[in-house]
Specification:
Layout (H helix, E strand, L loop, with lengths): L8 E5 L7 H16 L3 E3 L1 H4 L6 H14 L2 E5 L5 H12 L4 E5 L10 H11 L6
Parallel strand pairs: 1-2, 1-3, 3-4
């Protein structure tokens, strides 16, 4: 019996304005690979109309996150758009897969801990 992979819809959170050429190329290859393997990836750098105002961009991304089965994160701490998109994804209880980032568990409360716990346990492990 042949087992077919089930395609998933993914929202890729990554920097847009502060995206360097090397990272853009890596992400482009990642998206291409995922889509060749049947996934549908919404990458705001390519799939969100960036010509509008910030509100229009956030509205487009919110709808794409609503439509996504899971969220992938290429973490860059100084990306304000990434923080906004993460808040939407958290509120919608989307699974998070961290694909890159310099995140470390800390003894004290930290945003790194939140992201790492979310990646492992989901956004609401005690629900």
């Amino acid at each position: 019996m042949e087992v077919l992979a089930v395609a998933k819809s993914v929202f890729l959170i990554s920097p847009v304005r502060k995206l360097d050429a090397e990272t853009e190329e890596l992400l482009s290859h990642l998206v291409d690979y995922a889509e060749r393997n049947g996934d549908v990836v919404h990458w705001p750098k390519i799939d969100t109309d960036q010509s509008g105002n910030g509100t229009a961009i956030c509205q487009q991304n919110r709808q794409a996150i609503i439509n996504a089965d899971e969220v992938w994160l290429w973490w860059q701490a100084d990306s304000q758009g990434s923080l906004f998109d993460l808040g939407i994804a958290w509120g919608l209880k989307k699974p998070l897969k961290i694909i890159s980032g310099d995140l470390k568990y800390t003894e004290e409360k930290s945003f790194d801990n939140v992201l790492l716990d979310w990646h492992v346990d989901g956004p609401t492990p005690n629900d």
